[in-house]
Specification:
The chain is of the alpha/beta class. It has twelve helices and nine strands. It has two domains: about 160 residues, 3-Layer(aba) Sandwich (Rossmann fold), CATH 3.40.50.300; about 60 residues, Helix Hairpins. Helix content is about 50%, strand content about 20%. The strands form two sheets. It has a seven-stranded mixed beta sheet with strand order 2-3-4-1-5-6-8, with helices on both faces. Strands 7-9 form a two-stranded antiparallel sheet. Strand 5, helix 3 and strand 6 form a beta-alpha-beta unit. Helix 7 packs across helix 8. Bound molecules: 3'-O-(N-methylanthraniloyl)guanosine-5'-diphosphate.
Length: about 270
């Protein structure tokens, strides 16, 4: 069975190094339609049935740059079987921001926790089992530089069929998202309703246009958002960003022990 893999990560996470190591010379370079952003695809050296689509390095799935728009359009319309999310483990907090958004797409995710050679050198400890349990997806420790973990990465891609857990936010935000989701019942398929409700909460104009909401539904959703904003005296986009960072902080507190902390414990 052939598989299409969407390769995604922040700039400088090691995505190109991993892409080259997995595909070798089996690569094809072109452009994404309508833009001058390079499109690279390749077949895995040891399993030609796996096609990897190398998406541009991005920090978020917001609609502000051509790279972000290309990536999310591919995720929503390109039918990838698995997202391979490369995380720079030496910068895990910032990299997980994108991961939380990928987890909302109802697509199976495999995480390559890359730069583990650096993390080990720094003396940082990451509790991988806890991280797997919290995110609900396979996580493989890799060092693209030292070429470790790559066979395990391919094995995980071959067997992963379930999407990860959805990140959950505070009760008030969850209840506003649920209200928006209820308005989308007959408009989008159930598995993507949460993703769209989050995008609408952020007033993402591309998504509003794409969903072709009626004026009535649009107004109902606007009332939900502005009521939430007034209660927190903040704009919806910042509310969502803060909620994501709270979610990430709780994960990092549970699963990551920085070297500084271990030194403190020892002394
Ligand atoms: C330079 N471990 C370590 N230590 N480094 C890694 C790893 C890893 O697991 N993976 C990648 N790198 P890209 P994007 C460089 O190029 O794949 C390094 O943007 C240098 N170059 O070697 O390009 C990788 O595609 C001079 O580093 O990332 C590269 O995601 C001095 O991370 C950088 C030092 O990798 C980015 C590093 C001239």
């Amino acid at each position: 069975m052939s598989l299409t893999i969407a390769l995604i990560g922040n700039p400088n996470c090691g995505k190109t190094t991993i892409f080259n190591a997995l595909t070798g010379s089996n690569q094809y370079v072109g452009n994404w339609p309508g833009v001058t952003v390079e499109k690279k695809e390749g077949r895995v050296r040891d399993n030609k049935k796996i096609k990897i689509v190398d998406l541009p390095g991005i920090y978020s799935l917001s609609p502000y740059t051509p790279e972000e728009i290309i990536t999310r359009n591919f995720l929503l319309n390109g039918h990838p079987d698995v997202i391979l999310n490369i995380i720079d483990a030496s910068n895990i907090e910032r990299n997980l921001y994108l991961t939380t958004q990928l987890m909302e797409l109802n697509i199976p995710v495999v995480i390559s926790l890359n730069m583990m050679d650096l993390v080990k050198k720094q003396g940082t400890q990451i509790n991988i089992s806890k991280l797997i349990h919290t995110l609900g997806c396979p996580i493989i420790e890799t060092s693209a530089l030292k070429q470790t973990g790559l066979t395990e990465l391919i094995e995980a891609i071959e067997i992963t069929k379930m999407p990860p857990k959805m990140p959950l936010f505070d009760t008030n935000l969850e209840s506003s998202l649920k209200e928006i989701q209820n308005e989308l019942k007959n408009i989008t398929e159930e598995p993507l309703q949460r993703f769209y409700s989050i995008k609408l909460f952020e007033r993402d104009v591309h998504m509003m246009k794409q969903l072709e909401l009626s004026t009535d539904i649009h107004q109902k959703i606007e009332t939900i958002i502005s009521t939430h904003e007034s209660s927190l005296e903040d704009d919806s986009e910042s509310i969502l960003t803060n909620a994501r960072y709270e979610f990430i902080e709780s994960i990092v507190q549970e699963c990551v022990k920085k070297a500084k902390d271990s030194q403190l414990t020892i002394s």
